[in-house]
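Researcher: Next entry in the queue.
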Amino acid sequence: MPSQISQETQSQVRQFYSGAHAVLMRVWGGPTRMIHFGYYPDGDGSTLSHHQSLVETVRQAAIRLDPEPGQRILDAGCGLGGAAVWLVRNYDVKVDGITNVPLHVEAASRYASECGLLAPGRLTFSLLDYTDTGLPAATYDGVLAIESVCYAPDTADFLKEAYRLLKPDGRLVVLDGFQTRRDLSADEQSLMASWLHGWGATRLDTIDDFCTKAAREGFIDVRFENLQRHFKPSHYASYRLARWLVPPARLLNRLGMLSGTLYGHLRASRDVWYAAERGLCVQGIFSARKPSR
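Model: Structure for this entry, 293 residues:
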């Protein structure tokens, strides 16, 4: 049985998303109810709007998942429900969204209800730990995780549970940030910690480590696609919004006039750009399959 996400990590994630909810909704996610980075097909030359790029991220993940109508998908770390609603609408699949953030269960359920999609057997949202869900084995045709696996203290626990939950021949798709190498200098480690902790996360696996763990759990057809150039404009948009706000936010935080959560969010929005530009981390899609027997 996998070890559950620690209470400390649970609290850290909930504190971040509860404290930053209004900012994430108003400044980033808006009508899409999506709070991940945006995918731009032509990189810096793309003409998509910000909100279109957020939807394109989900579409790119769905292409790798390749679900058929009527299949059942687990959205592991469902956030505000935007990706799950989009999948139900565009692929006619059944989606169960899970998260360890109570606020997200409420917000996602409300959004799905407004869309007329919230119903058992079609679209649901639950407060569950994606490393130990308690759900029946071999339940899902696909498991999807968009910028959520970075919150797992040990990604092997997530991979083990995903493997258990998948039906034979089921697919796993993880779209997230990954560290490019293990041997970071003290300065590089500090930069990585600044943006990860600012967004309530802990650490990133390297690409090789994550792929090795997946193969060890039994996954086959393990593949990673480096899509950094497609996400670079979104990283820059995050940086552009935050760079001038970090110095005054730091002062306000020290004076007790701004929460540590919001200051950390602004700092992370800036520093993720620096880390990516220095080649310390990349955004990409990992995909794999559970053997048919």
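Model: The first helix runs from residue 7 to 19.
Researcher: Noted, moving on.
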